[in-house]
């Protein structure tokens, strides 16, 4: 089932939460909605599910206007952000729920429901858990059951709102691979919400980056990493260094910057900001360099380096075995050579200061 959303808006108490969403999801596609907290991801899913109504806009599913359909007529499988299995029901009864509460006329006979539950338990690889209660399950097992409950009604569309949010990293990785298999085998159209970039890019055919009620960009991992559509996307993708530069014939110029690795941009001459990820900067030893190594710590694989010039600090992550690494002892002078970066013309007004190092997030490796 394909989904087409056009110019959708929604406000809560006068505060806009969706500000004109246009999105098409192809039949059988797995799309991830990625964005910071409060950007409107859950609200958009709820509107598709019929649990919330937009103020304006269209929601068309395979040629049918879904805004005219009640939630129960949409055949949606929904796994919620904060999973809620029925605690007083066994795993089997939880999975059977959506079928057993149907009105008598459309409810399958008991034996057929039981057979469907058996099939799902096997498909989800949780056959041994059928008689247990939710309290007797691990978080990962509960999420499998929650997905089983969503799949039991043979949904036309599967909506997953941070289904792995509460789980630890290793379990998330397992479930991610498993979910991709489940999706491929059921062929359902799936929208998956997360604010974990790695999860979004690994799982999805396409990633939709949302910020403050708008779609900022749609693309795959390389497109969004290499060509962020806005400063918001660049920051969200981990560009924590914002360097004021001057564009001259499409090339970024700034003291202590070697921009030779960056392609020329078709942008007007003048002030601009260069957005860089710490891992995309290679410091080059240079006795006359503007920047000085203030800190250099190894975690075994990566050197975390702070480069300083007066009050400005730039974080750099360099593989420990990179040829440049040996020269980067404390106090060494260097030039910045970015291997990749995004440039946006500076907004009118004062140039942005270089992002201070305090904002840098330590990432587990
Ligand atoms: N029923 C409601 N009444 C009032 N405000 C709401 C309601 N539901 C959501 N909001 C507000 O709408 C905005 C978007 O909420 P939403 O739940 O869609 O965000 P989200 O992207 O899913 O965030 P998170 O990643 O934290 O789950 C938030 O500012 C939220 O407080
Ligand atoms: Mg949410």
From TrEMBL:
Residues 343-365 are annotated as: Disordered. GO terms for biological process: quaternary ammonium group transport. Pfam families: ABC_tran. Residues 3-237 form the ABC transporter domain. One of its GO terms (molecular function) is ATP hydrolysis activity. It comes from the Bacteria. The keyword Nucleotide-binding applies. GO terms for cellular component: ATP-binding cassette (ABC) transporter complex. SUPFAM superfamilies: P-loop containing nucleoside triphosphate hydrolases (SSF52540). Keywords: ATP-binding, Nucleotide-binding, Sulfate transport, Translocase, Transport. The keyword DNA-binding does not apply. PANTHER family: SPERMIDINE/PUTRESCINE IMPORT ATP-BINDING PROTEIN POTA, SPERMIDINE_PUTRESCINE IMPORT ATP-BINDING PROTEIN POTA. This is Sulfate ABC transporter. It comes from Paracoccus halophilus.
